[in-house]
Amino acid sequence: MEYTKQEIIRLVEEEDVEFIRLQFTDMFGTLKNVAITSSQLEKALDNKCMFDGSSIEGFVRIEESDMYLYPDLKSFTIFPWKPQQGKVARLICDVYKADRTPFEGDPRYILRRAINEASEMGYTFNVGPECEFFLFNTDNNGAPTTESFDMAGYFDLGPVDLGEEVRRDMVLNLEEMGFEIEASHHEVAPAQHEIDFKYEEAMHTADNIMTFKLAVKSIAKRHGMCATFMPKPKFGVCGSGMHINMSLFKDGKNAFEDSSDRHGLSKIAYHFIAGIMEHMKGMTAITNPLVNSYKRLVPGFEAPTYIAWSATNRSPLIRIPAAHGSSTRIELRCPDPTGNPYLVLAVCLAAGLDGIKRELTPKGEVCCNIFELTEEEQKELGIESLPCNLMDAITEMEKSEFVQEVLGNHTGTKYLKAKKKEWQEYITQVSGWEIDQYLSKY
Ligand code: ADP
Ligand code: MG
Ligand code: MG
Ligand code: MG
Ligand code: MG
């Protein structure tokens, strides 16, 4: 919805909104906010609200820590799960520096840069995500566990699907916030769920993903459960991904569509696919940012491990759904919901555009289940693997000047440094698996 400042001021009064959260996102995709009372609203809408950015992950040095929040008026929403007297609303903000120029480390700014490049080429980038998550019990202290009484599977319904009531509440709340929910269902693993909402222009979708995660977690909590987007919370069952469905529109028409092609795709779409495949290894630390992300990207659990594409099979990295017309799209299947959505969409778009500019042709089409190919067959088809752990992904990102340019110097450097630290911390741990395997045997 497009609002003017005056309309927001009027809404806040009419709806009895007491608190307004000015939101932004840090480098690692964590939602941050400064709450103001309605008395400060006008000041905030005039871009006069300041905050100290020095303690935000990936933001600035102490000596230049004063930053401004510029609310995006379109993003005004009331949280329906909060008290309905003295309501809570939010505005998503852009981050500006003290000298009133955009802060280059703001993830929204990084995505906007890629979007501007697309629009110079005449394209609108449309994205629809499929967020998966687990709903687990909490313990007596209200702390999250990885337990659940749920034993349902793919597309099952109540009473086996214990999450049905909670999911229903999530869907209703999201709809009240203006989400168009296309589907929601139980996923493959016990206690795992998916809720799909309609595609939108990329910035709107990235904002939606942030809001979606907040809503899902808040509503689960209200039901005494905990929702987690952790990619692989349980060994031996499917992990949670966030497939990204993408298309470019030009002059209101889907530029990926060409009905004369055997897969219904245009040349632009093939170039876009090729661009993503070209840059995929360097992007993986962004699309799959955690140590734990790589425990999902293993064979046998519906997640991709190879850099390949297919129109007939669901196993590869990029799938061409059978949909036609305005729904013609490509689906990238490796991202998981812990990625910073602004950065994920920025690298995907920039990589696709690079494919278009360089007129790249995608290699690595497969029509069988890749996991059934032998290593030699994979080599012959030119199919490479995704990075197999976070350190591999960091090394690939470090090699990719392209990805670092998309992120900009500030974020590129800080991100790599933080991820190396995360890896170092992890690799020196002694895990339960090691104790089980080695303690008594040696
Ligand atoms: P799947 O078949 O992989 O389970 P879903 O039906 O769960 O796919 O989700 C499909 C997603 O693709 C939805 O978010 C939908 O809005 C989105 N989508 C549909 N058409 C387009 C398009 N032209 N561009 C981008 N996303 C699209
Ligand atoms: Mg789906
Ligand atoms: Mg579906
Ligand atoms: Mg799914
Ligand atoms: Mg999918």
Total separate domains: 2
Small molecules in complex: adenosine-5'-diphosphate, magnesium ion
| Mean pLDDT over the residues | 93
Q: Quickly give the CATH architecture of the largest domain.
A: 2-Layer Sandwich
User: What overall geometry do the principal axes of the alpha carbons give?
Assistant: globular
Per DSSP, the total helix count is 12
Structural class: alpha+beta
Radius of gyration: 22 Å
Number of strands: 18
Largest sheet: 10 strands, mixed
Supply the CATH class of the largest domain. Answer: Alpha Beta
CATH-defined topology of the largest domain: Creatine Kinase, Chain A, domain 2
Proportion of beta-strand residues: 15-25%
Explain how this protein is built.
This protein has 442 residues and is an alpha+beta fold. Helix content is 35%, strand content 21%. It has helices spanning 5-14, 41-45, 107-120, 164-176, 202-222, 267-287, 293-296, 341-357, 375-380, 390-399, 401-427, 432-438; strands at 17-25, 31-37, 49-52, 66-71, 77-78, 87-97, 124-137, 181-186, 192-197, 200-201, 225-228, 242-250, 253-254, 306-307, 309-310, 318-319, 330-332, 384-385. The strands form three sheets. Strands 7, 8, 9, 10, 11, 12, 13, 15, 16 and 17 form a ten-stranded mixed sheet that branches. α6 packs across α10 (390-399). The longest helix is centred in the C-terminal third of the chain and has 27 residues, at 401-427. It is globular. The N and C termini lie far apart (65 Å). The mean pLDDT is 93.
